[in-house]
Amino acid sequence: MVRLILVVAFVAVVAIAITAVLGTMMAVTQSSAVKDTDDMPAKFRRITYVLLVVLMFGVASGWLGGT
């Protein structure tokens, strides 16, 4: 039963984190839409930003690289 509660809590935390990341990404893309001088397409920048956040959470939680 405790494992079930932990899994539900983890899913809730992940959902909140994804919502926060998406909200931040939307705010950043709206504010920087005018001064976009980077050669990298916006879609790839968003994908790499999300992957970076997933990597950071994975390393911090022990999901990636943990024994």
Question: Which terms summarize this structure?
Answer:
single chain; 67 residues; mainly alpha; 75% helix; elongated
Structural account:
- There is one protein chain.
- The longest helix has 30 residues, at 2-31.
- The protein has helices spanning 2-31, 42-61.
- The model has no long low-confidence stretch (mean pLDDT 83).
- Helices cover 75% and strands 0% of the residues.
- The protein has one domain.
- It has 2 helices and no strands.
- With 67 residues, it is mainly α.
Going by helix content, strand content and strand pairing, the class is mainly alpha
Q: Rg from C-alpha positions? A: 16 Å
What's the overall geometry? elongated
Q: What's the end-to-end separation, in Å?
A: 24 Å
User: How many distinct folded domains?
Assistant: 1
How large is the share of residues in beta strands? under 5%
- Fraction of helical residues: over 70%
User: Element order, helices and strands?
Assistant: HH
Query: Main β-sheet: number of strands, strand sense, barrel status?
Result: none
- How many runs of DSSP E, i.e. beta strands? 0
What's the total helix number? 2
Q: Would you tell me the overall average pLDDT?
A: 83
Low-confidence stretches: none
Topology:
Elements: H1 2-31, H2 42-61
Short summary:
The protein has 67 residues and is mainly alpha-helical. The protein has 2 helices and no strands.
